[in-house]
Amino acid sequence: MKHIKSVCPECKKVLDSTIFEENGKIMLKKTCPEHGTFTDVYWSDSKLYDRFRRYSYVGSGVSTNNGTLSSVGCPWDCGICSKHKTGTLLANIDVTNRCNLSCPVCFANAKASGFIYEPDFEQIREMMLNLRNQEPVPCYAVQFAGGEPTVREDLPEIIETAQELGFSQIQIATNGVRLAKSQEYCEALKTSGLHTVYLSFDGVSKEPYIENRGFNALPIKQKALENCRQTGLNSVVLVPTLIKGVNDHQVGDIVRFAARNEDVVRGVNFQPVAFAGRIDQAMRKEQRITIPDLVSLLEEQTEGDIPSSAWYPASAAVPIIRFVSAVRKVPLPEFTIHPHCGAATYIFENEGKLIPITDFVDVDGFLEFLESVTPEFEGQGSNVKKLAKVLYHIPHYIDEAKGPKDLKIVSLITNFLKNGTREHAAQFHRKSLFLGAMHFQDLYNLDLGRVEQCGIHYATPDGRIIPFCTYNNFHREGVEARYSKQYRKDIEVEKKTLDVQEREAA
User: Fold this and answer.
1) Among residues of the chain, what percentage have pLDDT more than 90?
2) Could you tell me the domains of the chain?
3) In this protein, which residues make up the domain named Radical SAM core (predicted)?
């Protein structure tokens, strides 16, 4: 049993809560004096929970110059607060809450508020500057989202500005409707500097779309992919909203679809559904699915080709980043997120078969080795001889004979460790298919310890940086209301009224 802080899903009061093992699962339990006891699945496999827990790292957070002091306490101090332990690895900027669809599972509940939240260009630029000025490590990756970001006519100009401000990874999260309609628009996005399209993609048949989107959106996804292919937007990540009983039977087919389209698809990032926003809360117990469920289903649906042992938490990358940072003597974004927030692996095609990286790389041994030698590179002095010695040992952890014949994995890894540049990382990604899962939290399964290590943040017009799960569960409505066009209009009307009253009084 472990004691954590969570909240009441009814009144949002912070509660002392527990996570405990029951029938091979990790459960979360909390009791609100007013609204009673709530129990939910935290992780559906206790063994995988324990394995992932080994990869827990604590980051240094952000400078107090970039955030706010903690006063009320999590989850209300988001600013980002001084207790937060991880810098911004990926920033979300909602450029609008307008959308050209009305999906039943929208966690942002787009279009439902009755007002339009759409920061102007200068506000968005200021949000990006705030991210780039973050200390001790600036934010390098930004994703423009919403709503549907492509309904803004100035999205290409926003992307171009992001490139000018030094973001090395620029993404949009899109339903693909506008990309499917126009190759010219895809070309405009590419020309402006867009790197990656995060495309919602719920399955390979019409049924999941009818359930998740309200209509058969599969032809739109296929056309959007083709237009990306034709215009050279060749970094698309498929993003299935995963719901038990809706599309969990298609996870293997989704991965195979991605592999067949590897010229344009770089990965699949599964998102087990969070019961926030528009989704029917009454279906929570029937539709709840967790990362271990996905891992197990994918092993089953690929006939063991992608086993659970191939998956690692995102935080497993910390030894690699810390090593490269020490070699280059430059602070880099550390993936010190909570080990139970997400999972990832890389797979490769070899003679028509999908194989995970763990088939030919001793991942655990490699990470332990890097962790052991990193202290040698800290401090002053030349690292040339020490680096040569480390690189000499890298082949000991790799069996290239078991990997794809044209991969040259030793060369890819040693070049990245030596240089640590985005281009060297991209070379690895171009040879592989990334599989990921990120389970965002809702009010029922919320662990505030996870929030404090969150690395995916929202930037807002008031200068705050807010963790993903607290933004969507606690702050979104207030931010959108305060900075909505209707709110600004009401303020202007009120100011004019006061001015008139003051003149009349005078």
Assistant:
1) 76
2) 1-43 (no CATH), 44-485 (3.20.20.70)
3) 85-303
